[in-house]
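Write out the 3D structure for:
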Amino acid sequence: MNKLLLCVLILGCVFTTNAASLEAIENPPVDLGACDEDNGVATFDLTQNNTIVLGSQNPADFNITYHLTQADAENNTNAIPNPNAYTSSDATVFVRVEETANTDLFEIGVFNVIVLFLPDISSNISDLIGCDLNQDGFISIDLASKQDEILLGQDSIDFIITYHTSFLDATDGINSITTPFNYTNQIANTNETIWVRVQRNDGTINDCVAITSFNIIIVSPPEINPSGMDINITVCNDDSVNEDPIGITTFDLTTFEDDITGGDVTLMVSYFASLADLNANIPIADPSAYTNTSNPQTIQFTVSTFVFTSCATQGSFDIEVLPLPSPVPNTELAQCDDDADGFASFDLFTLNDVIANGEVVNIFYFETASEAVIGDPSTAIDPNVPYNNSIPSLQTLYVRVESTVSIIDGLPCFVIVEVNLVIENCVDTDDDGIPDEEEDLNGNGDLEDDDTDNDDIPNYLDDDDDGDLVMTIDEITGIGAGIAPQDFIDTDDDTIENYLDDDDDGDGVLTIDEDYNNSGSPLDDDINDNDIPDFLDPDVALSTDEFEIANFAVYPNPATSVVTLENIDVDATITVYDTLGRTVLFFTNDTTERYSIDISTLTNGLYFISVSNRRPVTFIKN
């Protein structure tokens, strides 16, 4: 391989011609690069190699020319006319260095001119928006966050990127921003243009530089409308569902959204169940149907624009469930139908205390449920005036019970309960104060077979049902007992009402036997002058000649099929009666002091055994 061929392959080299000892080229020329100007063509300053090739030699002693072929360089022909502004694509250039004193003495060097392409970067970079949260006009922002957009996804290691506040600084590569990751705008409340200088990181002499820019836009978080700064959502506890626990219900958090935004449709409101959720950016998925987790509960919210959701104003409001009244849910008011036409007059006011259930509430009666829901007092029934039912036999009224403490915007929380107006058949054949219907004690619909005192007079025709000489009307009104009238009078608490109990005070002496003055009525007997008739006073049990304390035994107790009585007299009468005072078994002891009774036919429950004149003993049939 000859010297020229080797030099062309190596480039940036020197070979000597026509002067065996000449060293006109002290250093080999270097390749030159220039930025692409138009489709692979660039302008080169070839004379940059002048000082390189001459080194320490005196430029006045040499002529330097540049040629496109070796032959032209050797023959000193077709020299490039403008070596300091040579326009070309990639090419090989020959430099001829000859002595000015003797032009036949020269050396030739070879180097390349290389067209360097500009960095491929975006010329249309989106604005970088920063949020001025503290409203001081300044923002701290990361300029480098635009790097991928600038480089169009290229690897940043292949480029040198600097940021500048002016185009000239970017062009000259001076005054670059030293903290691009945390840049603060220079003038308060003023948007800025940031200039970006990008050059290849490939080590060539003439690196190419591309300049682009983007804007910093300062955004202030939206203001919350003044009316949205003072909102809370309060609802009445929903009694239409069985809530557990009470105070948990469903809210529409968006109810006052227009108050928050002022009706600005460009603003977006996000809702958060807690401050922790807000900080973690976990919004409520469906704020229009949110179930509270505590009562009351504070809801956090942010207001932002749809295009810049991270620049938001924070606010909060409370949601609360107010308790409802707790009235008696269903009430019945019965009234006698004296003329059997299905209609009667009712005193509704007597129900108020029952319905209120101990609470201070407002109560309104309505004929329809819809009227009760609306709650217009002008359509309510006046409870102070007797109300005549409009539907025969049974009519339902709807009672609106309003709280006096749970009030929202002047409107009280309320509950609607029902009152059934019942028309009763109050026919009382024997005028004993007990309607005939209630004297069907066994509930079989036949009044003729109810005879508590076994006097062959059915109870509905008997004004002394237990045969104790105290009229039924007196026993149901508590006369002589100092007891106010009530539904169930049972002096001795044996579960048998006095008017069906022939021993009202449970002292073992029948009421009929406590007529100690033999006046024909126990009502006027008060031996100890304590204002309690003796038949209602267990401390008085005279019946001096006939009464004995029970001293017989009953076993087993409870019993299933047989009970045994021990320590009774031969020929003693044995009576078993139920809690209604009805005789269910009767025997005469014709054996010894021990007598067994078959109770298998009795229904399960409490019974009394009376032996002759001894105080009754109770037993339980299982």
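The longest strand covers residues 394-408.
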